[in-house]
Amino acid sequence: MTRKPQVNVGVVIVSHSSKVAEGAADMVRQMVGEAVPLAFTGGNADGGLGTDVAAILAAIDRAWTPAGVVILVDLGGAETNSEMAVEMLDEARRGRVSVCNAPIVEGAVIAATEASGGSPLEMVKRMAEELSPQ
Amino acid sequence: MTTETPVIASALLINEVGLHARPAVKLTQLAKSFRAAVELALGPEGPWVDAKSPVRIMRVKAPKGAVLHFRASGGDADAAIGALVDLVGRGFDEAAGEGAGRA
Questions:
Q1: In whole angstroms, what is the distance from residue B19 CA to residue B26 CA?
Q2: Which of A85, A115, B81, B83 is most buried per CB count within 10 Å?
Q3: Which domains does chain B have, with CATH numbers?
Q4: pLDDT in tens, A14-56
Q5: Complex-level ipTM
């Protein structure tokens, strides 16, 4: 029996701070490993605190897999700009990108752990969101 | 023959940090690599939690010296239990990790 090569859901980290985004990505890489496509972005186009729709789109591109991508965000603007980026994707991709309602660092580690086992997009999102009090 | 009797084993947590974030990730990743349903508990009577759920395994917060009980059922349950007990017995391969200054 031949098995299809496993395609794992990718993870994108979007923070107002490039240091937070990079640090969260470091934790994912060290704790979960290399089995999950991972990208991060933080800061606005001027290098200050903030988020940037174009940079988020580029991060989604880097982490893209046919299994889809989950996005972990920190505060308000990161979420609205991520949602805007998702809306700018072509229709085929749009349905396979999900912004998670989960804490950014813990959510990224948990989502990547779930994704590394080959779980589908909805399950990866659900696992990260299980972190938040219901 | 399909058996309904789950495979059961236990293992002593020997690594310093116990079942904290990094070991919990390793444990769930390993559990996920098997088809069998795998559960973990701190006592032989449970309560049992899904060993494939990183969120639930992290909430177990078992300290060093705790005994982890595993229960698995399904096709490769024997292999799953063997691999998990081995992982715990190796201290999650953390010997060379951070904070391990002494030989």
A1: 10
A2: A115
A3: 7-93 (3.30.1340.10)
A4: 999 999 999 999 999 999 999 999 999 999 988 899 999 999 9
A5: 0.84
Q: Does B29 touch chain A (CB under 8 A)?
A: yes
* Structural domain count of chain A: 1
For chains A and B, count residue pairs whose Cβ atoms are closer than 8 Å. Answer: 33
Mean pLDDT estimate for chain A: 94
Cα A59 from Cα A69, distance rounded (Å): 10
Give the integer Cα–Cα distance in Å for B43 and A105: 31
User: CB atoms < 10 A from the CB of A39, how many?
Assistant: 22
8 Å CB contact of A31 and B54: no
Q: B3 to chain A nearest CA, in Å?
A: 25
- Identify whether A16 is a catalytic site residue: yes
**Residues of A near B (CB-CB distance < 8 A)?**
31-33, 109-110, 113-114, 116-119, 127, 130-131
Residue A1 is assigned to a structural domain of this protein: no
**CA A88 to CA A57: how far, in whole Å?**
8
- B43-98 pLDDT per residue, tens: 999 899 999 999 999 999 999 999 999 999 998 999 999 999 999 999 999 865 44
